[in-house]
Amino acid sequence: MSKQFDVIVIGGGPGGYIAAIRAAQLGFNVACIDEWKNDKGGPAPGGTCTNVGCIPSKALLQSSEHFEHANKHFAEHGITATGVKMDVAKMIARKDTVVKQNNDGILYLFKKNKVSFFHGRGSFAKAVEGGYEIKVAGAAEETLTGKQIIIATGSNARALPGTPFDEELVLSNDGALRVGAVPKKLGLIGSGVIGLEMGSVWRRLGAEVTILEGLPTFLGAVDEQIAKEAKKAFDKQGLKIELGVKVGEIKTGKKGVSIAYTSAKGEAQTLDVDKLIVSIGRVPNTIGLNTEAVGLALDERGAIVVDGDCKTNLPGVWAVGDVVRGPMLAHKAEEEGVAVAERIAGQHGHVNFNTVPWVIYTSPEIAWVGRTEQQLKADGVKYKAGTFPFLANGRARALGDTTGMVKMLADAETDEILGVHIVGPQASELISEAVVAMEFKASSEDIARICHAHPSLSEATKEAALAVDKRTLNF
């Protein structure tokens, strides 16, 4: 007999588990279906973010950064460290522990909020009176019926045509997190978030890393001035980035991977590496959802079609996160998940795409919110810009990390902040001040007049705000 629910969430990633918990908090009888498994076959909710994305990559970035500091930067602090070695197996084991702690935390939250969890793949069976019948294919087949359905099935790594992932030599983000030993030579295709973060991890541990990027510009979505500053830092670190290349045939063999490509100058080149990470974007995941059974509309990319409120073409069916339009970011999915749960309850869920922050967790970190200078120019918006380098920031000097700057863009007439862009230490944390300011339509003068702790990295944000009007407090 079918089990009845007010709300059924398909997918237990950031969008899904947050939507399920919020809906339960609002008084609904909620089920969440998720198929991720741990190495023992047990449930591992959290989606790509928790299992093979945001969380494990940050764990490896932290471990590798500690290693690099011990080898290259402790001496300047008067600390002598000799014979420092990296136990890759232990680093990976720590990463796995961090992942499991997050998996278990989500299961605890389901129990605490009385969300019924079903481990398996959820798919549409048919529309029924007052809702939809959902099948769960897991250890045991189950059938659920829900009045409202929220789809949060996330995305999958995009493979190069003709070069599938084998997760041994040709790696997706999943395989890149499971490398058992430091490769002597590592190749990456794509210089986006995954490429730069994974490239940074293995470079710090001793790999010779080459990134091949098809676009002629580095980090085209980032403010051009910030991207150039970041590129200089990566070049100095020894991260080799080739732009404007055209990748040709890729061959795998006992000795590794051979990539034929044409350089930006039109010269034929070959890159031989031990392993290749392909990070050319992600595609919406609707595999096995059986959308045709109920007539759920997909667009040309395979994403579920939704309106501004995340409603699909079907009554009572919603979709959030990577499986719909918009940036594929965990926190964007979370915001949509909360908003949909509240809309189902008759409230006014809120998601402002203009203030969704972006972060690349390299060193230096890169973070931004709002529009870039090149976007403002293209749109014909009159603006003022202010920048401040971390080189002139006392806290950054004390940290021993003065790379980068804070850049603020404001409307030339109203002084409203239009964008904030940071490359440098702890940019991922500093950007939140800008997000709050922009949500409340703050001006650059508002930031300039707020008292910031001294010494702190956030003073660079205040100085950038002052620089918008050609002022400064930095003597």
Question: How does this model look, in words?
Answer:
This protein has 475 residues and is an alpha/beta fold. It is 31% helix and 26% strand. The chain is built from 13 helices and 21 strands. The protein has helices spanning 14-25, 47-52, 54-72, 88-112, 173-176, 193-204, 224-237, 330-344, 373-378, 394-399, 427-439, 444-449, 459-468, and strands at 3-10, 30-34, 116-128, 131-138, 142-151, 155-157, 170-171, 185-189, 208-212, 240-242, 246-253, 256-262, 268-273, 275-278, 282-284, 317-319, 358-360, 365-370, 383-389, 405-411, 417-424. Strands 1-2-3-4-5 form a five-stranded mixed β-barrel. A five-stranded parallel β-sheet has the order 7-14-8-9-10. β17 and β18 (365-370) form a beta hairpin. α3 (54-72) packs parallel to α6. It starts with a strand and ends in a 7-residue tail after the last helix. The mean pLDDT is 97.
Q: Report, as a whole number of angstroms, the end-to-end distance.
A: 75 Å
Strand order of the largest sheet: 1-2-3-4-5
Sheet of most strands: 5 strands, mixed, barrel
What structural category characterises the helix and strand content? alpha/beta
Radius of gyration: 24 Å
What is the overall number of helices? 13
Provide the fold topology.
Blueprint: E1 3-10, H1 14-25, E2 30-34, H2 47-52, H3 54-72, H4 88-112, E3 116-128, E4 131-138, E5 142-151, E6 155-157, E7 170-171, H5 173-176, E8 185-189, H6 193-204, E9 208-212, H7 224-237, E10 240-242, E11 246-253, E12 256-262, E13 268-273, E14 275-278, E15 282-284, E16 317-319, H8 330-344, E17 358-360, E18 365-370, H9 373-378, E19 383-389, H10 394-399, E20 405-411, E21 417-424, H11 427-439, H12 444-449, H13 459-468
Parallel strand pairs: 1-2, 1-5, 2-3, 5-16, 7-14, 8-9, 8-14, 9-10
Antiparallel strand pairs: 3-4, 4-5, 6-15, 11-12, 12-13, 17-18, 18-21, 19-20, 20-21
Helix pairs in contact: 1-8, 3-4, 3-6
